[in-house]
Amino acid sequence: MELWITWLIVIIILSFIEACTVNLVSIWFIVSALISLAMSFFDIPFVWQFATFVLLGILLMIITKPLLKKYIHPKSVKTNIDRVIGMTGIVTEEITKNTIGEIKVDGKRWSAMSKESITVGENVIIDEIDGVKLKVHKHEEK
Predict the structure, then answer these.
(1) How many whole angstroms separate alpha carbon 102 and alpha carbon 126?
(2) HEC string of 27-94?
(3) 96-123 pLDDT, tens per residue?
(4) I want to staple 60 with a disulfide (CB 3.0 to 4.6 A). Which of 11, 28, 44, 141 is the partner?
């Protein structure tokens, strides 16, 4: 079988794999297979064609994938729940190390927990969301 037919089959298989996935898995090797296909028309030995296929595919993946990720997966937009992270809330029900209390933030009441005891009326900063509870710490007045 002619080498160019082999590279054409490789390109078709890799294109099918790429069409089945949306993660840019094999696009880099499709490009390198196209280069190897072109090399096969100039009677360049198969060893060089294969080396070009592998090395160019890896090189393209290393160089271009981080650049494309920036444009394909733009920064995520915070949802309504995520936006409370970093906000200041006020304690409406005492929070102790072993019990869940309650805070009011952004006009809504939330269950909250902390590694420290916080009394009613103190300000807290929301660190993260754990299920339906907020993890908070005391707001240090400066």
Answers:
(1) 12
(2) HHHHHHHHHHHHHHCCCCCHHHHHHHHHHHHHHHHHHHHHHHHHHHCCCCCCCCCHHHCCCEEEEEEC
(3) 987 899 999 988 999 999 999 999 999 9
(4) 28
> Phi/psi of residue 109, each to 5°?
-95, 135
Are 35 and 57 spatial neighbours (Cβ–Cβ below 8 Å)? no
Give percent above pLDDT 70 in the chain.
Answer: 92
What are the angstrom distances between the C-alpha of 135 and each of 73, 93, 106, 115, 116? Answer: 28, 14, 15, 9, 11
**pTM (2 decimals)?**
0.51
Mean pLDDT of 12-25: 87
Quick one: pLDDT at residue 77?
A: 59
CA atoms 47, 50, 52, 54: torsion sign? negative
Of 134, 133, 117, nearest to 125 by C-alpha is 134
Type of residue at 49 = Q
